[in-house]
């Protein structure tokens, strides 16, 4: 911490906070040297607002028979277990097109080649193109355009 406590330091910190806001940054750290053994370390952090929404509760219909689950029913219930599942490699927001109103990268029934961009995940203001892991046909699209996705969440089924 600086041995100085001046109006210039206060103005400096206010300027850093303004830079943080105008450039959509979340954190900024600066060291200001005054002399060999006198400096000011400043770290300005903007708290992000986290919004959580509860998923709608679905009531299961009563079942008359209780059969033991098989591998096929497990895959039908959890798309992440499907051998053709494309899962999210990161946390972010999934988009099916390059921009709003543009033609989607893929639709159900579309044939894709390995490496072809099938969606975009925006993470930290960066658009990450997600390629098809294999060639095949898009059987299911499991995300809504503009919806948040978690790491490992199934995004689509390509067979």
TrEMBL record:
<protein>
    <recommendedName>
        <fullName>Biotin carboxyl carrier protein of acetyl-CoA carboxylase</fullName>
    </recommendedName>
</protein>
<dbReference type="GO" id="GO:0006633">
    <property type="term" value="P:fatty acid biosynthetic process"/>
</dbReference>
<comment type="function">
    <text>This protein is a component of the acetyl coenzyme A carboxylase complex; first, biotin carboxylase catalyzes the carboxylation of the carrier protein and then the transcarboxylase transfers the carboxyl group to form malonyl-CoA.</text>
</comment>
<keyword id="KW-0444">Lipid biosynthesis</keyword>
<dbReference type="InterPro" id="IPR001882">
    <property type="entry name" value="Biotin_BS"/>
</dbReference>
<dbReference type="Pfam" id="PF00364">
    <property type="entry name" value="Biotin_lipoyl"/>
</dbReference>
<keyword id="KW-0275">Fatty acid biosynthesis</keyword>
<dbReference type="InterPro" id="IPR011053">
    <property type="entry name" value="Single_hybrid_motif"/>
</dbReference>
<keyword id="KW-0443">Lipid metabolism</keyword>
<keyword id="KW-0092">Biotin</keyword>
<comment type="pathway">
    <text>Lipid metabolism; fatty acid biosynthesis.</text>
</comment>
<keyword id="KW-0276">Fatty acid metabolism</keyword>
<feature type="domain" description="Lipoyl-binding">
    <location>
        <begin position="83"/>
        <end position="159"/>
    </location>
</feature>
<dbReference type="InterPro" id="IPR050709">
    <property type="entry name" value="Biotin_Carboxyl_Carrier/Decarb"/>
</dbReference>
<dbReference type="GO" id="GO:0003989">
    <property type="term" value="F:acetyl-CoA carboxylase activity"/>
</dbReference>
<dbReference type="GO" id="GO:0009317">
    <property type="term" value="C:acetyl-CoA carboxylase complex"/>
</dbReference>
<dbReference type="InterPro" id="IPR000089">
    <property type="entry name" value="Biotin_lipoyl"/>
</dbReference>
<dbReference type="InterPro" id="IPR001249">
    <property type="entry name" value="AcCoA_biotinCC"/>
</dbReference>
């Amino acid at each position: 911490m600086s041995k100085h406590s001046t109006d210039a330091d206060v103005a400096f910190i206010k300027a850093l906070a303004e830079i943080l806001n105008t450039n959509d940054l979340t954190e900024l750290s600066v060291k200001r040297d005054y002399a060999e053994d006198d400096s000011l370390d400043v770290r300005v952090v903007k708290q992000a607002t986290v919004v959580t929404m509860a998923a709608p509760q679905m009531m299961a219909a009563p079942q008359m028979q209780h059969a033991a689950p098989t591998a096929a029913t497990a895959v039908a219930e959890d798309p992440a277990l499907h051998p053709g599942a494309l899962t999210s490699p990161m946390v972010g927001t999934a988009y099916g097109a390059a921009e709003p109103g543009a033609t989607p990268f893929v639709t159900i029934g579309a044939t894709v080649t390995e490496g072809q961009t099938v969606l975009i995940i925006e993470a930290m203001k960066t658009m990450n193109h997600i390629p098809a892991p294999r060639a095949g046909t898009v059987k299911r699209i499991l995300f809504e355009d503009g919806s948040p996705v978690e790491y490992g969440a199934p995004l689509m089924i390509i067979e």
